[in-house]
Amino acid sequence: MARPALRPLRICRNSLLSYSCTPQRSILATITATIPQNNLRQPAALRSHLPTQRLYHSQHHPDLPPHEYTNSQTTILSAALKHVPAHGFTKDALVLGARDTGFLDVSVQLLPRGEFDLILFWLASRRGLLRAAVEQNGLLATSDGVNAIPASVEEKTKTLIMKRLRMNKDIRHQWQDALALMSYPSNIPLSLSELHALSSDILHLAGDASVDASWYTKRLSVSAIYASAEVIMTRDSSPDLAATEAFVTRRVEDSKAIGDKLSGAKQCLGFMGSTAVGLGRSWGLKI
Amino acid sequence: MSSRSLWRSLRLASKRQFAVPETQYRCFSCSMRTQNQPKSDKDRMTHFGFENVPEHEKESRVGAVFSSVASSYDTMNDLMSMGIHRLWKDHFVRSLNPGSALPSRNVDSAEKGWNILDIAGGTGDIAFRMLDHATNINHDHHTRVKIADINPDMLAEGKKRSIETPYYNTDRLSFMVGNAEHMPSIPDNSVDLYTVVFGIRNFTDKQAALVEAFRVLKPGGVFACMEFSKVDNALFNAVYKQWSFSAIPLIGQLVAGDRESYQYLVESIEQFPTQEEFRGMIQKAGFMIPGRGFENLTGGIAAIHKGIKPLSRV
C-alpha cells in the first residue's frame, strides 16, 4: 500500500532539492486552481465586480474610492463644502448645500452622521486630491531629469504633509471646531481610521516600502506629525503657512533623530551583548 | 399561594402565545394568496395580532382597539415602556431636526417652513414635539403639521390636548381623518416630511401606505418611521418577550380595564417585519436609504427607519 504513495518522490530523486518539491508543487497547483487568479490579470474595468473588501492589498489592484458615499450624498456634500468657509462644518452648511443642489432642507437626513459626515467627506476628498496631485500632476516628480538626486522618503513625506495642510488653508479658521467634533467619543474611531488612511497614503506615495515593524512606527509618526501640525495650523497667521512648515520640518527632523538614536542604541546594545558573550566564553562558560 | 398561581397562569399564558409559530401564518396567507388570486378583497386574509382576519375586517378591529385605549393612551405607554417611549420620541424628533434655522430663499410665505404630515399621530405626541422643536430650537414659525389618523377617537384626544399648546387654532396645526393607504385629499409632491410613529404596524397593507407616502412627498422629502422592532440580543429578547407577553396585557387589564387590546398590541409587535425586511419594503417603494437605513433604540425594541425620495431626473 505504501508503494504508490512513494512513487512521485522517486521520480525527482536525482536532485536533492526536488526531494520535497513534488508534493509542494501539487499543493500549489490545487491552490491556484481554487482561487480565480486570472481575474486579477484582467484590466481594471473588467474587475469592477470584485468585492471592495479585500483580505490583502496589491499595487496591481485598482485604487479604492476614497469614500463610500452615494451619488446624492456626494452631490449634497460637495455643494456643502463651498459653504464651509462661511458657516463652518455645521448643519447650516449642509442645508445650504442641499438647497443649492435642488434638495429640501429635510434632505440632509440622507447623511445619518450629520456634520460629522461633512468632515469625513472633506478629509476623504482631500486625501483623494492629494493622491491625484501625485499620480496625475506629478507633484513629487523631479524637474531636471537625470542629474537631480531623487528626494529621500523623508523629504517626500514632508512635501506631502505640507501639500495636504495647505489644502486646509481656506477653512483653517473653522478647523478647530471640526477637530472638536472629531474628538467626540463616538466619532474617534472613524477619525482615527481616516488619519491612518491619510498617513498610509502619504507614505505609500512617498515610496516607502517597509514591511517590518517600522510599517507601524512610520505610520504612527506621520500621523502624529500631521495631527499636531494641524493644531498649529489653526493658529498660524503667517503667509503661506510658513510657521507650520517650520514646525513640520522640525518634527520630521526630530523623528529622524529619534530613529537614528534608537538604531544607535540598538547597535550599542548588540555590541555589549556580544562582548558579554565573548567574555563569558573566555571564562569557560558554555555559551 | 395566590401569587404563585397567578405567576403560573402568567407563565402558561405567555407560553401559549409562544406556541403559535409565526411561520404558520405566513404559509397560510401565502397559499391563500396564490390560490385565491382573482378573488375579491373580502376573502383575502391579513393578520390581526396572531389571529387571521379578512382584510376588510382588520381596519374596523384596529379601530375598536384604539377607540378603547384612546383615553388612557399616555398612562399606558408610560407604564408599558417605563417612560422610555418619551425618550424615543424626543430622540426621533431631535434627529429629524424639523424647521428651517436659515432664512428661506422663498419670499412666498406658503413655501416657508416645512410641510409635515404626521400619520397615525392622533394624540399629537409627535406633532407637538416637532412644532416645539421648530419654534424653540430653529426659531421657525412657519413649519406646519397635519395630523392624520384613521381613528376619530384618537384625533379627538389630540384636539383636546392641542388646546393646551400655543398651536391651537392656528394654521400651523391641522387634523384630518384619513386612511394612510389612500389619501386623495393630499396632492402629489406636497410634503417635506412624512412621519409615522408606532402606527404602521396596524396598517392593513403596509406596502400601499409606503407607496402613498412616496407619492405625497416632494422630491428630496423624507419618510421617517419609528416602530417596535426585533431585539438583536437573545438574552435581552427573552426578558423582553416575558415582559411584553405577560406584564403588558396584565397592566392593560388593571389600568385600562381592557386586556384584549393590549394582547393585540404585543401580538402585532411580534408580527411586524424585522428591521432588514422593513428596510427592503421602504426601498421597494422607491426611497433612497441613508447609510444602514435604520437605527435601533434600546437594543432593537424600537427602530427608526428613514427613506428619502430621490430627485426626479428631468
Automatic annotation (TrEMBL), chain A:
This is Ubiquinone biosynthesis protein. It is found in: Mitochondrion. Pathway: Cofactor biosynthesis; ubiquinone biosynthesis. InterPro entries: COQ9_C, COQ9_HTH, Ubiq_biosynth_COQ9. Membrane-associated protein that warps the membrane surface to access and bind aromatic isoprenes with high specificity, including ubiquinone (CoQ) isoprene intermediates and presents them directly to Coq7, therefore facilitating the Coq7-mediated hydroxylase step. Participates in the biosynthesis of coenzyme Q, also named ubiquinone, an essential lipid-soluble electron transporter for aerobic cellular respiration. The keyword Mitochondrion applies. GO terms for biological process: ubiquinone biosynthetic process. Keywords: Lipid-binding, Mitochondrion, Transit peptide, Ubiquinone biosynthesis. Its main location: mitochondrion. It comes from Aspergillus mulundensis. Belongs to the COQ9 family. Residues 73-98 form the Ubiquinone biosynthesis protein COQ9 HTH domain. GO terms for cellular component: mitochondrial inner membrane. GO terms for molecular function: lipid binding. Residues 189-258 form the COQ9 C-terminal domain. The keyword Chaperone does not apply. It comes from the Eukaryota.
UniProtKB/TrEMBL annotation, chain B:
One of its GO terms (cellular component) is extrinsic component of mitochondrial inner membrane. Keywords: Membrane, Methyltransferase, Mitochondrion, Mitochondrion inner membrane, S-adenosyl-L-methionine, Transferase, Ubiquinone biosynthesis. The keyword Cytoplasm does not apply. It comes from the Eukaryota. One of its GO terms (biological process) is methylation. Pathway: Cofactor biosynthesis; ubiquinone biosynthesis. Its main location: mitochondrion. Component of a multi-subunit COQ enzyme complex, composed of at least COQ3, COQ4, COQ5, COQ6, COQ7 and COQ9. This is 2-methoxy-6-polyprenyl-1,4-benzoquinol methylase, mitochondrial. It comes from Aspergillus mulundensis. The gene is COQ5.
